[in-house]
Input
Amino acid sequence: MKKLKIGIVGCGRISECYRDVFHKLSDKITVEYAVDKDIEKAKKFAADFSSRYTATFEDILDEDLDVIHLCLPHFLHKPYSVAAMEHGKNVLTEKPLAMSLDEADEMIKTEKRTGKILGCIFQTRFNQSVSTLKKRFEDGIYGRIKTVSSILTWDRPDSYYEESDWKGTWEYEGGGTIIDQAIHSIDRVRYILSTDVDWVEASIFNRSHPKLSVEDTAEAFIMFKNGVKYHLYATNTNGFDTPIQIEFCGEKGRFGLIQDMGYSFLGKDYEEFREVKPSVTVGKDYWGTTHLMQLEDFYASVIEGKKPLVDGVEGRKTLELVKAIYLSAKYKKRITLPFKDETLTKEEMRKILFY
Output
């Protein structure tokens, strides 16, 4: 079978995860190009694969590549995705899909027009515990789900933001703890429930990062169209990264996740679903180990011409919920989906972040 030819754009922190996965999938792919504005980072990444490297994204657009991976600041996802697809490349971008719904729509339209495949990284969907709980939910063993909660209490000190020229900014990241950290919890809840959102009420705050123009704390109440009530709390002001907790409460029982471990309560019966992890040992714990599985899924989609598990439409749905949280916080009112998105400026958002 012909190997897919791969290019990676962005050789920063998250690229270490891709480096490991690319080695494990070497029977299916060849890494042809590494790109980073810091040429030394690109050179270092490329050395592992004897591939070419460059500091300029445009250099690879006319190269013979099947897939381009985008590991970039959020504001570059749309322009780089569109350019890559217009030059005949399939694109898998890190989350979020884009900075705005208009950008996401342009990316999806480009995908349809070019016939290429667009995907968005939400690797935690591929956890075995998530798959197990989703199937049990779909089998109806918990009865009608009434409520969901997710709690994220992590630590992001000033140094985390000082190491980057784009994190912690509305202009380049598009938000803080919601779009950067809690977005994975939001996506897992959406994925397991497989239903659309009706409305959102939310508040955001900056409690302990006065140098930033984004939220470090947020809470939201989300109503799904099937009547499920979802309460979300997220903060980056904790002393350490506590395991994320997600819990679904049904008429017959409860189930949920503590980080990657799944659990289930049915009457007096309690079960745990420990994650069987692929042997990916690099990167941060909260990245998980399932980039491997998502990349395999995306490559199969490219080869077979089918939709990946997380395509552009799915990426947009999670982005829409994120943007609804921000708009609700801005206007201090309920936001009903769908809605007309708008650009949120640093000046506008700072007014609601600080007392």
The radius of gyration is 20 Å. The chain has a mean pLDDT of 94. The domain at 4-123 is CATH 3.40.50.720 (Rossmann fold).
